[in-house]
Specification:
Distance between the termini: 34 Å
Number of helices: 2
Strand content: 25-35%
CATH superfamily: PPM-type phosphatase domain
Structural class: alpha+beta
Number of strands: 6
Strand order of the largest sheet: 1-2-3-4-5-6
Largest sheet: 6 strands, antiparallel
Order of helices and strands: EEHHEEEE
Helix content: 25-40%
Length: 139
């Protein structure tokens, strides 16, 4: 059994609301850590960041429960896509949040293997990099 020590600090920038969000989950011995940054200058960055974190952690938990042998990079890519879809869907159903967006950094680690990380930027330019899996490209 491995022990994870997680430390985090969050400081609000110059905007009236905190537009960053983070979370983590230990699912079946795999640590999933997610950081989302609502894009400044866009509407509802705080909501986009929270939706992103919640969606990625939920999707990873479901994917690992469904098939614990599936490669982490596959799970992270699918979770990032689902998060992007959730953010876009929310923006479509809430006109005040149209074009909201967030950036995402998600890391999964199954000891003793090295961590796998995914990064993406929600519209307009959506790119994903999975370190440790030799994959990168558009979502």
């Amino acid at each position: 059994m491995y022990r994870f020590d997680i430390h985090a600090a969050q400081i609000q920038g110059g905007r009236p609301r905190q537009e960053d969000c983070w979370g983590f989950h230990n699912v079946g011995g795999m640590l999933c850590s997610v950081l989302a940054d609502g894009l400044g200058g866009h509407r509802c960055g705080d909501i986009a960041a929270q939706l992103t974190v919640d969606q990625v952690l939920g999707e990873l938990q479901s994917a690992i429960s469904d098939d614990p042998r599936r490669p982490p990079a596959v799970n992270l890519r699918a979770a990032a896509r689902k998060a992007r879809e959730a953010v876009n869907r929310y923006g479509l159903t809430h006109p005040e949040c149209a074009r909201m967006a967030a950036t995402l950094v998600a890391v999964s680690c199954i000891p003793p293997a090295p961590a796998t990380a995914c990064c993406w930027v929600s519209p307009p330019g959506v790119w994903l990099t999975c370190t440790g899996s030799n994959e990168s490209g558009a979502l």
